[in-house]
Amino acid sequence: MKHKPPVWIDKWLNCLLAPHLREEILGDLHERYALRIKRLGEGKARQRYWRDALTYIHLSNIKRKSTQYPTTYLYSPTMIRNYFKIAFRNLLKYKGYSFINIFGLATGMAVAMLIGLWVWDELSFNKSHKNYDRIAQVWQFVNFDGTISSYNSVPIPMADELRSKYPDFQATSLSTYTRDVILAVGDKKLTKSGNYVQPDFVDMMSFKMLAGSADGLKDINSILLSESVAKAFFGTENPLNKTIRMGNKTDVKVTGVYEDLPYNSDFRDVLFLAPWELFVANDAYVKRALDEWDENSFQVFAQLKEGASAEAVSAKIKDIRMKRKDPPGYKPAFFLHPMKQWHLYTDFKDGKNAGGIVYFVWLFGAIGVFVLLLACINFMNLSTARSEKRAKEVGIRKSVGSVRGQLIFQFLSESFVITLIAFVVALIFTQLALPYFNEIADKRVSILWANPWFWLLGLGFSLLTGLIAGSYPALYLSSFQPIKVLKGTFKASRFASVPRKVLVVFQFTVSVTLIIGIITVFRQIQHAKDRPSGYERSSLVEINMNTPELYAHYDALRNDLLNTGAVVEFAESGGSITGQYGGTTNISWKGKTPNTQPLFMANQVTHDFGKTVGWKVIEGRDFSRKFSTDSSAMIINEAALKLMGFKNPIGEIVRSGKEYKVIGVIKNMIRQSPFEPVNAAFYTINYNAVNTISFKLSSQLGTSKALDKVAAVFKKYNPEAPFEYSFVDEVYGRKFSDEERIGKLAAFFALLAILISCLGLFGLASFIAEQRTKEIGIRKVLGASVAGLWQMLSKDFALLVLIACFIAAPISYYLLNDWLQHYEYRTNLSWWIFVASGLGAIGIALLTVSYQAIKAALMNPVKSLKSE
Amino acid sequence: MRKTILGELEELVLLVVAACNEDVYGIPVMEELQQQTGRDFTISAVHTTLYRLEEKGFLSSSVGGATAERGGRRKRLFALTAAGGEVLLEIQQTRTRLWQSIPQAKLELMGLSANPF
């Protein structure tokens, strides 16, 4: 017949109409269509045809006739047992394929589990504190010449002000920063970290008292110990009312023991709590600062009353300082930083919260999802690719009486078996990887064996994967007509492999993006490491002066150390070289723009500091004992020189408290983040404002021998304290720890992503090679070379990976460019990274495919052609 | 006997099938209906009616007679059953009775022919 009605309408009607009506109704419709063409022409006939078709949407036409035969019983226990028996037999029959499937899927699941646990831990940070929702810390924004910085340090009177004038607070407590103090009981001396706090602190943070009570802190000579510290000192003895000596100075009585805080609490290093009054009594500076509104060196924690919101109260307390007399030029604006945000949202930019670690939670969450997706894609691709092979099985099963439902159940049970085994293997992988993971990620997470959500999520996900991966073979294969597949005329359509190809491209896009990502992260770290630090870090050692004995023997200590021959140079300074504390805006010079308040970092050092740390004087000279006037001399860094704008800095007068004469300019020294520009800083001589000893070890003796000699000297001067020191290059190295941690984790995940992708490719290649065995045999007989066959089999895959590279390049450029903007001092994204990653990916993919391709190409054609 | 009420379309379709010499299927029934009544019917309405009549036992059906324009599909051919004949007769008798009770003058007044037959 020449003119046929629209095929799609027929198809649609075929689905719609009940089977017993299909034939006659469609026949009549076609006949009528033919009549209409004669009468009305084709256009109108078509139009009417679909109008007619629409009128068949009626229940009586759609309702299926119940069959007169009994239906097969699909879900009898025997059948179900049989489904799983066949599933296991299939697993064992194709061992390689089963291994790729299970191993790949398990790896993906394990990565997702690890990342999930990590994210869970990050999100539950600080949640162990009962008043989590209502605790806040007082912060302030300060304005140094237009740049707004944020600090969690506030002045002491703030606490009383909040307590007396603002009814929104239920409790407030002053606190020091967590600091190291030497605790001693008899001869046993341990350096432990802890805070000096007010009594409200314990209840507010819901420290769990195991013995004694929080009220103990009301007594000035008391201390609360964490369980671990109490054990370390007293073992099984009752620690209550025992005496401990703090900092070789004060005797205090143990009035309580509290449970150690979990690792995911910001107070995890608080191993003891001592009374705030004790801190005040022992420190002259703090005594002076008691009523000072501009000494911002302390922490204030507060608990809000029910119903008070941190934002609302922040607005109320914002101008506390500005309303008082003599408001400082840096315009402090106080605000409350709620505990919910302490861990994940710690960055502030221009007076607004700018996220923080939450960025990495998102990043790793995304990586986890992608890796899992890659594993699922493998699973799906292999199942669908292999399914064509099973067409014959479907044909035979159907001929001997299997119904579609049974086949669907059969295929689904196979994929469920695989995903469930993979889930169990993933649990094992996760358990094995956790110790390493915890070390790299600086976490203490464990599998949440007892958490129902964990199981629900894990099992739910496994079932979902099984369902999705199994649905294609289950629904598509089971629809085959037995006669077609058994006759051998069945052939998958040309486009059956398109979704598979798209998925491979997706897998490699993710992999290449990850490769480019890790190369960039490591380049950024290396970039910052290569940045000249401005001082010599090797064999430089620092000691914290935490006992009174170490003070006031500068010359004697220095001479003794030099005389051992183990030490080349010795100096003291206020603060470690690897940190930068104490800025000031109280500074002026000739030519300073009036009414500006730039921030300068103030450093007090001794004469020998420059030589000890090896700073580089680029103009003028270093401090020297030869000039008695050096007590009011100043050395500035390049950044300060730029800010001050001196043409000839030497001899210029700078006022900061008193008048100083600039005698030298040094190269910028990286003391804070190596990713940020160096702040303007100046150095002055002051032998009293020091708290850190630094010395350079001689390279002639070995490090351990030299340290032994140094330790002997310190024992003489400071017999009560343990000899504790730190190497500057190690501390400096820790500045990169965040970035290195991210780099290592990302590298680990990227590696797994590539592994999973390649595993999938390997499986697909083996499948294709197997499918084309005959073709390859014939080609070989006709004279094809191994190289030619290899090229033929590998070309397709290489092309897919190439496409993936071109998709990955812009995506990763966009993401990484965004990431690098976080850093002031950053590496550039040069083109070779993209080319190298692309070539690398293609290389790995080719290597994977080549194994199968060459194996197939080397096969004896006699064998492959003889089979069947 | 169970009282079976036939709708108008049902009655018409049943009459068309009865009027044919041989077994008929959907298309000729519809063509005939259109010719006789001058009204337009959708084919699905005719199909539904035929199936319903079969269900009620007034028609019987068999399959056969595939042609090229049907794409090789067979027709469902309907034939009148005895029950179908009976119900038609019954309807006609009822109508005749009713006609006879109409006063002749009434129709003549309206200018209509008195005898339909």
Automatic annotation (TrEMBL), chain B:
Molecular-function GO term, any one: DNA binding
Any one Pfam family match given in the protein's UniProt record, by short name: PadR
Residue ranges of every copy of the Transcription regulator PadR N-terminal domain listed in the record: 20-88
Keywords tagged on the record: DNA-binding
Protein name in UniProt: DNA-binding PadR family transcriptional regulator
Organism field: Runella defluvii
Lineage: Bacteria, Pseudomonadati, Bacteroidota, Cytophagia, Cytophagales
